[in-house]
């Protein structure tokens, strides 16, 4: 259904959000440029001649973490839980949702905003918009990951282009991340079995470090059957069929010069629903299953130093990325009903350097990217293609001008040239300033706040959309931009941590499709606002935490609908609980987690033919055991997931209508795994 119904999005508004915020944007732009200079000058004037005092940036443990980062999943948790899907990776993070269904439907929503509105990267390589709105945006094997960081809203200038609703950064493991203490070589073997889907998973890795060289190789094969939902019925087209591999080579000299190269290949191939994000459609064409092959290839190379100086701390990274989806017409339909071969190829890189300045550090650099979008159309005499070139420059200062205050402020400038499928070329340039601050109020309380204006150019089109029609672009398309804000309080004392934050993201001129006139147009205002709450406590051998997220997402003044493709999804209120306890004498760790989603009922859903989104609760248990003290590197893990056999569709899954049955998540299942490191 057309998502841009209502007022003509191209009609000027005398009091539109962009005009209301013009004064604030100008002030922020001036602040992002002048604040670092003013603070640097003030601090320099207070110092003795020739002296340079450097204040430390924020440190959590031993890892530097940007003050804009709102959530991070560390390697320890990834290695322990060995997630096979993005849904399991983020199941304790209520601000991030992933739809139900097969790996082919994996897609990220942050505070209800679609992945198309986020800057998502794997080892610095951007993962652009999806090739097909019924498929996921990211084919990924989470067991390869070292960390996953989320910046839900305000993103710094050096996080990259197009972070309208925030950023998600995935970083894969290096050889040193895998080695046992004191070893130069090693290996890991993981064997797993899921009882519901009868999925066998095998992961093997070998790695070594010698004379400055580092080598790593990891491979995973996972294959199974269609899983059963909570009603005990098979969900056709959900069988796991994943092959993935990661190879890395690096060399570090005695002087700290480090060069690296990597290549990752992930392939999901199998029988999938024509529309993986939906259940079956109750008409003659809706129950079709297709053989589908989704692939991602990411290659990176770069240079950095592990012995930086005040003026020399470079980080150079170049990448090649290809996302592809092959959907042959196995059903021999005579019309363009979904068969195509689509891909997005990206080449780009980032060159940056961090400089020591009074009270902190200044990072400056340039980045560039060229996206080649192509589609083989089997029911048209011609194929379709687009090319998008973006060149940007950025500067970001991270400062601590006084003992209890930390600031991060910066500016991006980007130029985009978009050659559209209909032959038109759109050239646009924009600025993106930001500022964030943290101040230690006292008594363990920290106040924080941030604001960014993000210029996003023209969002990449959905590649496979052209399989059905010859779309054209409105000649007066305007670039998309966002105003993002987040602020709140954090408390930490001993093992106790608590945090509460308000957030608001307003996106002007998001791109949309008019399916009646077959034109790409500017849509109406997209807004996500709400709050995040979290609390946790850690003991030496135990820990508990609770997280709550309320996300109110609207599009054109009404609740966002499941059919607002590449825009957002209604997620409402989400609560997660988790806890772990280790019995040290038995070498046994017990864990439990639960996810609660509250019912969503709205007039906009009913008017568009959707039913209310039902509430659900999913509970999980786990146990990890080291069978023998002499075999400390052998771990057995058992999980009981969805123990109450709840029949539910995870939030951000396409909803129920009179003709569409939602795809349900996996019912009760037991997952058994064995991990050996040597």
**For this structure, what is the CATH class?**
Mainly Beta
Distinct helical segment count: 6
Q: Give the amount of beta strand, in percent.
A: over 45%
Please give the share of residues in helix: under 10%
- This entry's quaternary arrangement is single chain
The radius of gyration is 25 Å
The H-level CATH homologous superfamily, spelled out, is TonB-dependent receptor, beta-barrel domain
Q: How would you sum up the global shape?
A: globular
Q: Kindly report how far apart the N and C termini lie.
A: 55 Å
CATH fold descriptor: Maltoporin, Chain A
Q: Give me the CATH architecture, please.
A: Beta Barrel
Low-confidence stretches: 1-63
Supply the helix-strand structural class: mainly beta
The total strand number stands at: 36
How is the biggest beta sheet arranged?
22 strands, antiparallel, barrel
Round the mean pLDDT to the nearest integer and report it.
87
Give the count of structural domains.
1
